[in-house]
Amino acid sequence: MGFIPNALLIFKSQSKSGDYHDDMNKTNFMKWLQEKLIPNLPANSLVVMDNAPYHTVKLNKAPTLSSTKAEMQNWIINKGLSYLPTMVKAQLYEIIKEHKEAPIYEADQMLQAHGHRVARLPPYHCELNAIEFMWSLVKRRVASKNVGQETNNIVNLTEEAFQTITAEDWQKQCEHVRHIEDKLCERDRCVDAEIDRFIIELNNESDTESDSSYEDSSDSDYSSLAIHMDHAYSK
Question: Whole-model pTM?
Answer without folding.
Answer: 0.70
